[in-house]
Amino acid sequence: MPIDSTHPSYPYFKKQWDRCRDTTNGSDAVKAKGNKYLPRLGGQDNDDYNAYKQRALFFSVAGRSMVGLVGMATRRTPKVEASDDMIEKYLKLSDTGNAMSFREVLNESVEETLKTGRIGLLVDFPSSGGDAYISTYIAESIINWEVDEFNDLISVVIFESVLGQGKDKFEKVVTEQYRHLFIEDEQYKIQIYNKNKQLSGAAIVPMVSGQPLKFIPMVILNSVGVSPALVKPPLLDIVDVNLSQYISSADLEHGRHFTGLPTPVVTGVSNETQLKIGSQTAWMITNDKAKATFLEFTGQGLASLEHAISEKTSQMAQFSTRLMDTSSRGSEAAETVRLRHSAEAATLSTIVASVESGLNIVYRWIAEFQTLEFTSLILNKDFLDTKLTHQELKELTESLIKGAIDQETYFYNLERGELVHPDKTEFDSSLDLDEDTNND
Question: Across all residues in the chain, what is the average pLDDT?
Answer without folding.
Answer: 83
